[in-house]
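Hi, here's the filled form for the chain we discussed.

Project: internal
Contact: R.S.
Residues: 73
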Amino acid sequence: MKQEIRQNGKTVLHSEDGCSIPMIFNNLIGKNFKGREYSDYIAFVAIPDMGFTYGKIEYYSDGILVATGEIKP
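And the returned structure, exactly as it came back:
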């Protein structure tokens, strides 16, 4: 099963391990992190290391849209 996170129509991250992409998606939309922990994760990991930008993201599994969210400043 291929899972991926897309932004602006392009795949930014993908995996077939079945667990990392849903966890990362939840980190990016603020479900797992709150407050300062979230803003630090976005500013110091997601944007410079993973290649994301602020804005809408989409989580796909085997090409089917599962969830949408937003990376917020």
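Let me know if anything looks off before we file it.
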